[in-house]
From TrEMBL, chains A, B:
Protein name in the entry: fructokinase
The family this protein is said to belong to: Belongs to the ROK (NagC/XylR) family.
Entries under InterPro entries matching the protein: ATPase_NBD (IPR043129), Carb_Metab_Reg_Kinase/Isom (IPR051804), ROK (IPR000600), ROK_cs (IPR049874)
Source species taxonomy: Bacteria, Bacillati, Actinomycetota, Coriobacteriia, Coriobacteriales
Cofactor(s), names only, from the UniProt record: Mg(2+)
Length: 296, 296
């Protein structure tokens, strides 16, 4: 029997990654379309998937977006700084012309799902996926289910305590919060502090790395205490191109100060890890969303 | 047909609250036993429930405790400062002599369940219950399921940013963390700062209340961003006897700074609330745990 062909779409703020594949995690073809004007961009996405005979589509979308199927706005982009995309019915714009069942979640929840189904958190019930790139986003699985709630987690914006040695100034990389994790750790914060440099160019700067690792450790401690995850997986450009994950681990232990005694914390090197799957966790999670849409 | 009689046990660090009732939330009888030596205390608890013909028992236990039914230590108390209770198999010590099906979770998860089944969060899928008393504990429901994961949430110990006006000194009320929520807001922190006073004696002190409300708001913002709950319910002696919940609401909005645009945040007075059920959320949650144990 032939496996049904599935479609996977990582709808990001800078690019749309379209792919086809099978439920077992095989990716057959993929294509990137820049995220520009919503109308033209989505037309190209529809055209690409239309030229492949997909039976279902899984979408991981940039946020904030409505991910509760019971919401009247399910599948729409919400209050984003990308004003052209505000209130765009992303799911509707794809599901209607394509005429196949669609799964829909945030890009980071999809990546979390990808790691939990195909990657280093395979079979685990409680997983945090963190991306540190242009922004910080968290995808979270609790009891094998992705977290939505009121909207979806926005754990990249949790408030941290400023390091007095931080040269960033009174503002941060986040327009809303002077001291949130995204505002202090993500790409724009790095550019702001270190003359426009990218994280990869600072990978060998011990002072810069120590500052960022301290902030990342603060955020990780909060995620550990709040979600009690069985694994934390970190992806995104900033984490991928620096030793930040390794540097944050001992700082996490320092901050916990012996408070949590679990086998996971004892084996912190396998508890807090860089992403697996060669960066394909997001698109593979979308494939799994497609599989679930087809099944239900 | 007769309703089956259910048992509910709130196993707290200072007292054991035993009750009988029905699945519909009726409490028939209750009794308090001080939490002293484990052997003697549990013997009294067993004797009380043995004298009532219960068909199942629901237990909400002080933590840290093993709440994952798959764990070999399920139902045991873990690394607690109450050293006599360390490694006590609380569930076994009750389930064996009583010979009825038992449900087991943390006291705060039980209270969260009580609010979600019988109280002000009835029917909601994603709920945070916070108690601010001798310590701070959080019970959390996500997608209608209580959160366990690696252990269970310990969200009372998230790190906050110190207010420069705080007279508490370098240490806090938490022996592990100089700046965690429990260490800065709970009973011992209040005693430490204000000459042994209890929170209720400071309810009319605007400076004290503002300091505590600022810290509580920091913690609430983190819970909102991490869990994306549909409601946050706050109980415990410190919250019950002060205007802290009301004072924290505007501070939460200030800290979010317009970042989350949802109907819930717009209606913050019904989003962040004092507990309902006249303080019976914990014991009613235990009753629901008993009902579930009987059903499964
Ligand atoms: N060598 C690198 N290549 C690409 N991005 C990098 C590199 N080093 C650091 N970064 C940072 O990663 C961010 C991009 O993150 P990424 O996760 O790839 O995308 P996004 O977050 O935009 O979806 C940029 O802000 C950039 O500063
Ligand atoms: N009027 C009051 N009555 C009882 N406790 C109070 C009062 N005001 C403040 N508290 C504080 O509440 C704490 C007890 O909280 P509670 O939630 O009742 O119990 P616990 O946290 O020990 O389970 C004490 O630390 C006490 O300081
Ligand atoms: Zn922010
Ligand atoms: Zn603490």
């Amino acid at each position: 029997m032939d496996q049904p062909l599935l479609g996977a779409l990582e709808a990001g703020g800078t690019k749309m990654v379209c792919a086809t594949g099978y439920a077992d995690g095989t990716i057959l073809e993929s294509s990137e379309i820049p995220t520009l004007d919503p109308g033209a961009t989505l037309e190209q996405v529809v055209a690409w998937f239309s030229s492949h005979d997909i039976q279902a589509l899984g979408i991981g979308a940039f946020g904030p977006t409505a991910v509760d199927p019971a919401s009247p706005r399910f599948g729409s982009i919400l209050e984003t700084p990308k004003t052209a995309w505000r209130n765009v019915d992303l799911l509707g714009a794809l599901a209607q012309p394509l005429g196949v069942p669609c799964g829909y979640d945030t890009d980071v929840n999809a990546a979390c799902l990808g790691e939990a189904i195909f990657g280093c958190a395979q079979g685990m019930s409680d997983v945090v996926y963190l991306t540190i790139g242009t922004g910080i986003g968290a995808g979270v699985m609790v009891n094998h289910q992705l977290v939505h709630g009121m909207m979806h987690p926005e754990a990249g914006h949790i408030l941290l305590t400023r390091d007095p040695a931080d040269p960033i100034g009174t503002e941060s990389g986040c327009p809303y919060h002077a001291s949130c994790a995204e505002g202090l750790i993500a790409g724009p914060a790095i550019k702001r502090r270190w003359g426009g440099k990218r994280a990869s160019e600072l990978a060998d700067d011990p002072k810069a790395m120590a500052l960022l690792a301290g902030y990342l450790a603060q955020a990780l401690v909060t995620y550990i205490l709040c979600y009690s995850p069985k694994k934390i997986i970190i992806g995104g450009g900033v984490a991928d191109h620096t030793p930040l994950v390794a540097l944050a681990r001992p700082r996490v232990r320092e901050l916990l100060n012996g408070y949590l005694v679990t086998p996971e914390i004892e084996n912190i090197d396998t508890y807090i890890v860089n992403n697996s799957l060669d960066g394909r966790q997001g698109i593979l999670g979308c494939l799994e969303l497609a599989r679930r849409a087809l099944e239900s």
